[in-house]
Amino acid sequence: MNLRQVLTNSLNVLMMLFGVFMSYKAWGLYTNCESPLVVVLSGSMEPAFERGDILFLSNPKKAIDIGEICVFKIPGRDIPIVHRVIDRHDSPETGGQLLLTKGDNNNADDRGLYQELYVNRGKMWIEPKDVVGRVQGFLPYLGMFTIFMTDYPLLKYALLGGVGLVVFLYE
Amino acid sequence: MTTETQPRAIKVDKSNLLDLKSACDDALKEYLETKGGYKQSHKHTDIKLVLGYLGCAFAGAGSYYGYIHPFELPATKFWTGVSVVLYYLFNVLMMAYAYLVEKDTIFTGSKTTPHGTQTISVGSSVKSYNPYYDIHLHMDVAGSPSSTTSLKGKKSTHQEFSTAFQYWFDEDGVLAQEQFEADIIKFLANTEATHIE
């Protein structure tokens, strides 16, 4: 295989990967949401969402309403949480909001979660800036694939390596 | 002991039209480069590679920018949008080049002959369910002032040939090199002959 063939095969692989990735970015721009696709990791929203469901998110301009299911991040914690908004206070001057959330399957609201880290002591509400996106739709079960990949990283590398090799050699 | 290397027999699945075409394409390119004496021009491949890698470079740069800057900032959204548009633009340009300019060309090359510089462009195609190898040869001869014939200026000729695959492949799907080369030599001679008045 000469240099041109190697470059052409590599380009084909790259363009496939970037094609998918750029579509994802374009979708993020359209929905105004950095991560328009997430996977549910816990059972705190059962029976609506179960572990392994894929959620479609977006960030419309209108104010967050009670009953909307939001994916949010508490400052200081990495993992986003998907729970329902059960209370809101709006500030007409600033347009800001204070929100209280609770998982459908949990007994208590999320104030305990907000204050888990010492830096958040006394924090009683979250705000729209903490919200990554609002749930617009979902696909059941398909996210289990991602959960397997995260739980067994070896599977991820094996799959990526295998696919890359096959594509490269059979071009 | 022979110092020549025996070429490997090309064997394909004779019921697969694209495989048959690919085998003939490779054998044709091989012939033109070696016995035909042509020096291959990689212009089409190079242009597609440049367009493709440029698109990927823009996509990569935009992805990196989006990774280090928070998404909420208007600047991040703007540059992410720019990189998405540029990536798809170069993608489309690359496909347009392949479809509009390169089309079905499999070989372009040139060689110097007593008549001048001879350039050849060969395109090949197959029609669905039609076991014929269709090639069209485009040949330009550009006479140089020092050429030994009366040929001056540039002469172009375009010839098309269609041969059934059955004349070149045996029942095991092995390409008969001698038959194939003999026919190619005939096609080339036919095309060159139209230059000579």
UniProtKB/TrEMBL annotation, chain A:
Membrane topology: Single-pass type II membrane protein
Subunit structure: Component of the signal peptidase complex (SPC) composed of a catalytic subunit SEC11 and three accessory subunits SPC1, SPC2 and SPC3. The complex induces a local thinning of the ER membrane which is used to measure the length of the signal peptide (SP) h-region of protein substrates. This ensures the selectivity of the complex towards h-regions shorter than 18-20 amino acids. SPC associates with the translocon complex.
Primary role: Catalytic component of the signal peptidase complex (SPC) which catalyzes the cleavage of N-terminal signal sequences from nascent proteins as they are translocated into the lumen of the endoplasmic reticulum. Specifically cleaves N-terminal signal peptides that contain a hydrophobic alpha-helix (h-region) shorter than 18-20 amino acids.
InterPro entries attached to this UniProt entry: LexA/Signal_pep-like_sf, Pept_S26A_signal_pept_1_Ser-AS, Peptidase_S26, Peptidase_S26B
GO biological process assignments: signal peptide processing
Enzyme Commission designation: 3.4.21.89
Localization of this protein: Endoplasmic reticulum membrane
Catalytic activity: Cleavage of hydrophobic, N-terminal signal or leader sequences from secreted and periplasmic proteins
Species the sequence originates in: Linnemannia exigua
Family: Belongs to the peptidase S26B family.
Entry's transmembrane regions: 6-24, 154-170
Listed name of the protein: Signal peptidase complex catalytic subunit SEC11
Keywords: Endoplasmic reticulum, Hydrolase, Membrane, Protease, Signal-anchor, Transmembrane, Transmembrane helix
Enzyme superclass (EC): hydrolase
GO cellular component: signal peptidase complex
Molecular function in Gene Ontology: serine-type endopeptidase activity; signal peptidase activity
Coiled-coil segments on the chain, per record: none
Keyword Repeat: no
Automatic annotation (TrEMBL), chain B:
Family: Belongs to the SPCS2 family.
One term under GO cellular component: signal peptidase complex
Membrane-related topology note: Multi-pass membrane protein
Record-level GO BP terms: protein targeting to ER; signal peptide processing
Keyword terms, alphabetized: Endoplasmic reticulum, Membrane, Transmembrane, Transmembrane helix
TM stretches of this protein: 49-67, 79-101
Protein name: Signal peptidase complex subunit 2
Function: Component of the signal peptidase complex (SPC) which catalyzes the cleavage of N-terminal signal sequences from nascent proteins as they are translocated into the lumen of the endoplasmic reticulum. Enhances the enzymatic activity of SPC and facilitates the interactions between different components of the translocation site.
Keyword match ATP-binding: no
Positions in coiled-coil regions: none
